[in-house]
Structures are given as C-alpha cells and as structure tokens.
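Support reply, case 0932

Customer input (verbatim):
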Amino acid sequence: MHQAVQPLANLLGAWQGRGHGEYPTIEPFSYVEEITFGHVGKPFLAYQQRTRHAESGQPLHAETGYWRPVDDGGVELVLAHPTGILECLTGNTTIDDEGRTVIEFTCRPVLSPTAKSVTETSRVFTIEGDTLRYDMAMAAVGHDLTHHLSARLDRVTARRSESAASTDA
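Our regenerated output:
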C-alpha cells in the first residue's frame, strides 16, 4: 500500500447497506447500496458505488472515481456519474472525540451539456470500525444546498490490499 493512502486504509474493502433519499423535486425513497474501495499501490483509492431501489430492485444510481490523499489530512474525491455530472470534491479527514474518522467534502460540480443543473454538493463520511455512514446534500435545479441522501453501510469483506475496484490507472 502506498504510504499516502494509509490515512484512508480503513475504507478498503466492500460495504453494503441501506439508505434514504429525498429532495424537494422528488418523492422520498429507500435504497440498497454497495461501495467498493481498492488500491494497486499508487497514491489513491479506487471507488465504485451502485444503488438499487429497496423494494423493486431497480437500478437507481452509480458513480465511480478516486479518493486522493493530499497534504495535512486533505482528501480529493474525483467522481464521474453516468448522468453527465463530474465532481471534484475537496475535504479534510479528522478523528472526532469518539475516535471515529470523519471526512467532509464540498464541491462545485462540472456538468455535461445535457446534465441537470447541479451547482454545489457536500458529503460527510463517518467511519467507525466496520460501519460507514454518510450524508449528502446538493444544490440543484434552482434549490439551495439541501439534504439529499443518508446511508449506513457495513463492511462485507475484510480490508485487503487489492479489490475489484482497483485499477492500474
């Protein structure tokens, strides 16, 4: 494992869980989610995420990208969505008073010509042992930054040095 990704090593492996979504322009919904973090010895973690509707099993969303540690506990999260949204989030990693790893990100997305208007996103990830929680907010289609998603996932594979999300990029 590259020394630069050591602060993020507790993310490695596969995670599964459930979440809830809402936004002023849509009906609230529940979903199931799978996230995989892997690496190939370079200074980044590869990331893949997939969600399905909790009742119907219909695919809802996917994103893929890279977590890139930077100096002084900083992290960049570079994501591509099939909806034409590209996010380059910047944030910091801290350890809270209860010993949990907390990673907070903010972003002004880049959009393809056909993507919905998203002007800002924020994400907060909290890792405690084998539990990963996150909250995501976005400013989109004329609404200010508003809560959109919350989920809790549990690790389903042990931490490992490489995974299906790895790439030689």
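We compared this against your earlier run and they match. Two observations from our side: The chain has a mean pLDDT of 92. The chain has one domain: 3-155. Please reopen the case if you see a mismatch on your end.
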